[in-house]
Specification:
The chain is of the alpha+beta class.
Length: 494
């Protein structure tokens, strides 16, 4: 196991720091399949904590899980014009269903006789296959609302990949719901946006801005796309989740109708919403430092690690007896996840560096003198502060400390975002801020896609969102000088 040695410093090369950290903290690695990743056990354990928390939140709001096919007939994608246009360049296509031995005896080749009558698309997202299924599930208003979520993998062909942030295959959840009215569907879209924001802030300790996307940034096939946007430590934005009001677009494309209470037949109204393993990238980039991961306690696979400081086998046995009979049972009874690192093959200093690298929120060190004094040394990962506390009531002390760490990590990220959010009124200010400081820039925009695209071409900055409850404020577009009624949020983004 490698320690923090070899991690590039953030201020030297942020991208290299990120890649180093993902690999050295044992989160993920590049796979033999180009563009794909292997999520290692420690990384997957963090994802499981995310998944489990979100799954509870979905079920608490009436959603149930289902599973739909990985393969989508090509004709399905062509049923919704803007949808196919949005995903066409990212699709992986299955054309044959069989291999055969090569004529020269060297390996296998695709059997030309096994060509599929219709090509299959490896799902980039599941709207089409799910709405084709909903046609069979929905006949009456009694079948609505239909609130379904799917945990799955998707494939979007990527040429330039980065672990967790952009890979050809990734894990996610995608919710797909059907409703009797537009009002109900919009209410669902906004409810799921709130759930994503609550998860980001309460579990990930990640402050986010809720907003609606411009038409240019909208999901292909949606009427409106809502999002949560977060700021990373390099001043770039990251879209952390999206919720889409689909209107009746997919219902019309797949002929999904219901008979209302009045006996009239109408098309249903739809939504879709999702977050992915990209949240792992957000978690790493928002909080971690030059020594390794900094994990919010609510998502840490190991919340407390205990390191014995001993001389000889007898000393280890004395410490282990107290740790295993008293401390660990108390911590576990309090609902905490604990690791006792009693390896005799590594020195305490190595273990300290290793668990610091892995972002464990609290470390306990116990030596033979601590046994005599009935104390333990506590070190917290976020501030690296150390203190000596009594063994008595250790579970209560650590639970309170973990709550404090969770709040502190969020507060630190919030203060960073506030410090790196700037209001500008001129094009010169806009360019200077993006070049020198980065972060979120609040500026007026004339509302046209043409201006939005020119700004992106000149600066690489995009409109991340139009914040919800955005105050009306008369001004002039920073680029064209045309009238504007509100500021929007710009940033260079991942």
């Amino acid at each position: 196991m490698s320690t923090t040695k070899g991690i590039t410093k953030r201020n030297e090369d942020y991208a290299a720091w990120y890649q180093d950290l993902v690999k050295k903290a044992d989160l993920a690695e590049n796979s033999a399949v180009r563009g794909c990743m292997v999520i290692k056990p420690y990384g997957y354990a963090i994802w499981e904590k995310m998944r489990d928390a979100l799954d509870r939140m979905f079920k608490d709001t009436g959603h149930t899980n289902a599973y739909f096919p990985l393969f989508i007939p090509k004709s399905y994608l062509s049923k919704e014009a803007s949808h196919v246009e949005g995903f066409a360049k990212e699709c992986a296509v299955v054309t044959h269903y069989r291999l055969k031995n090569a004529p020269d005896g060297n390996g296998v080749v695709v059997d030309p006789e096994a060509k599929l009558e219709e090509e299959l698309i490896v799902r980039p997202t599941s709207e089409t296959v799910i709405w084709s299924t909903y046609r069979n599930w929905i006949q009456s208003y009694r079948d609505l609302p239909l609130l379904i979520n799917q945990w799955a993998n998707v494939v979007r062909w990527e040429m330039r990949t980065r672990l967790f942030l952009r890979t050809a295959e990734f894990l996610w959840q995608e919710g797909h719901t059907a409703h009797a009215t537009a009002e109900e569907a919009i209410e669902e879209t906004l409810q799921m946006l709130e759930i994503y924001a609550e998860f980001a802030e309460k579990y990930m300790a990640l402050p986010v801005i809720k907003g609606v996307k411009t038409p240019n940034e909208r999901f292909a096939g949606a009427v409106d796309t809502y999002c949560i946007e977060a700021l990373m430590q390099d001043g770039k934005a990251l879209q952390a989740g999206t919720s889409h009001f689909l209107g009746q677009n997919f219902a019309k494309a797949f002929d999904v109708k219901f008979t209302g209470k009045d006996g009239k037949e109408e098309y249903v109204w739809g939504t879709s919403w999702g977050v992915s393993t990209r949240l792992m990238g957000a978690l790493i980039m928002a909080h971690s430092d030059d020594d390794g991961l900094v994990l919010p306690p609510k998502l840490a696979p190991i919340q407390v690690v205990i390191v014995p400081i001993f001389k000889g086998e007898e000393g280890l046995q004395k410490i282990s007896q107290v740790v295993n009979s008293k401390i660990i049972p108390e911590l576990r009874q309090a609902g905490l996840t604990v690791k006792y690192d009693n390896r005799d093959t590594e020195r305490p200093g190595f273990k300290f560096a290793e668990w610091e690298l892995k972002g464990v929120p609290v470390r306990l060190a116990i030596g033979e003198r601590d046994l005599q004094n009935q104390t333990v040394e506590i070190a917290r990962r976020d501030t690296k502060e150390k203190s000596t506390v009594p063994m008595e009531n250790i579970a209560r002390i650590i639970k309170n400390l973990l709550d404090e760490i969770q709040k502190n990590i969020f507060q630190k990220a919030l203060e960073f975002r506030q410090k790196h959010t700037t209001r500008v009124d001129t094009w010169k200010e806009f360019e200077e801020i993006l070049l020198q400081k980065g972060g979120f820039v609040e500026a007026h925009w004339d509302g046209t896609t043409q201006t939005e695209e020119i700004i992106k071409e000149k600066t690489k900055a995009t409109i991340r969102c139009i914040p919800l409850q955005n105050p009306q404020e008369k001004g002039k577009c920073i680029l064209t000088g045309k009238p504007s009624s509100q500021r929007v949020l710009f940033a260079v983004a991942y």
